[in-house]
Amino acid sequence: MAGDMTQLQESSGARAARPEPARHGWPGVAALTLGTFTVVTSEMLPVGLLTPMGRSLGVPEGVAGLTLTITGLVAALSAPALVPLLGRADRRTALCALVAVLVAGNLGAAWAPGFGTMVAARVLVGIGMGGVWAVAAGLAVRLVPAKSAGAATTLVFGGIGLASVLGVPAGTYLGAVAGWRAAFLAAAGLGLVVLVAAALLLPRLPAERAVPLGGVLRLTRDPRLRTGLLVAGFLVTGHFAAYTYVRPVLEDVTGVGAGAIGALLLVYGIAGVAGNFLAGAGAARSPRTTLLVIGTVLALTVAALPWLGGSPALAAVLMAAWGLGYGGVSVATQTWVLLAVPDAREAASSLFVAVFNGAIALGALAGGLVADGIGVTAVMATGAALVAGALVTTAAGRAPAPAGP
Predict the structure, then answer these.
(1) Is residue 41 part of a domain?
(2) 269, 168 in Cβ contact below 8 A?
(3) Three-state DSSP class for 137?
(4) In this structure, is residue 178 part of a structural domain?
(5) Averaged over 171-193, what is the pLDDT?
(6) What is the domain extent for residue 13?
(7) How far is CA 385 from CA 45, 296, 390, in A?
(8) Number of domains into which the chain is organized
(9) Hey, which of 67, 128, 195, 241 would disulfide with 367, CB 3.0 to 4.6 Å?
(10) Distance between CA atoms of 254 and 164, rounded to whole angstroms?
């Protein structure tokens, strides 16, 4: 995939404004990757902590799930707006400021004495997350030589994929051992590491050009981009409608405790790492085929969990299949977006961030309504139906041409 992504970046005219690669290259890319991992992990921490967090804050699980909805919604609104608002600001300075906002949000979540304070803290997390993701998306190509641009970009987006499949299990384990507040404290500490790393390892990164909000929105006229954004929306909404409530579902269906649930989520995470790299290689060759495979795996797995997950062994198999499928969603849909409009990388990425996080918010909200209104196991059917919508859109919509050899 690295070679294919390099061609995408070169076609966007991003050769200019790279600092000296020998001085700033891969350490700076590593800082960006840790940054994307940290912001997405921070966003999704409530997934594995819903039960103890809701009990401590005095709200039901469906209401506790709104902490994910709020963060995703704020990130969706802030990402496309922040790129124009940052204007000509140095991107290293902007990135550090946004990470500081994220750290403040995680500290507030760890301290929150009540649900209102938790909501305010999660708003800060959403602002920091949406901004960091949008800014970091276009920086890797400026840190390394042209021949390494694809590999660097893949690593930065790999941080997002790895957070999706590893951040929740890690937070769940820590929450079981030290309490749910400790998980947010750990996320704040990781954010401080990112802040220091970005300040030390990134060079000054002047904005390449200011993009008005109207110019960002006009990109949606391209039918290939519209299709890719719709597919991402359906997949992520369906996934989070189900995955936000995977802990109570596993508790009800499988009857296991917190430690075993952490182990099941770890199985999911390990499989997701493999899915991230498999999808990255396949998406550059054929984004449509790759996403059809991903959607089929997700729909079947999510639908089957309430029926076949009664055995811990079968639940582990299903969670592994789920991780394998969802692990490839972010890299496959991002590849589709870059192939659709390779000459507008930063603007298209901000739209992708908006759709992705809006879908997280919508999925968590839909799952909460179903969980509170019908029951937690019904969220699996809801998720599977939404993923089926992604399959139809992928098959019927207009796809971009695969990257050249």
Answers:
(1) yes
(2) yes
(3) coil
(4) yes
(5) 92
(6) 2-396
(7) 25, 11, 9
(8) 1
(9) 241
(10) 23
Task: Compute, in degrees rounded to 10, the torsion defined by CA atoms 232, 40, 49, 101.
Answer: -130
Taken in order 142, 146, 151, 157, the sign of the CA dihedral is positive
- Domain with 327 in it: what CATH number? 1.20.1250.20
- Please tell me whether residue 209 adopts helix, strand or coil conformation: coil
- Please write the tens of the pLDDT for every residue from 6-38: 444 444 443 434 444 444 588 999 999 999 999
Judge contact between 185 and 69, C-beta under 8 A: no
Record the tokens describing residue 252, joined without a space: 């009800």
Tokens of 300: 């079947």
- Alpha-carbon torsion angle 127, 277, 391, 403, nearest 10: 100
Q: List the structure tokens of 294.
A: 């991903």
b (16+ CB within 10 A) / e for 209-229: eebeeeebeebeebebbbbbb
On the question of pLDDT at 353 being above 50, the answer is yes
Average pLDDT, the chain: 83
CA–CA dist 286, 263 (Å, integer): 34
d(Cα 394, Cα 227) in Å, to the nearest integer? 7
Residue at 192 is within a domain = yes
pTM over 0.85: no
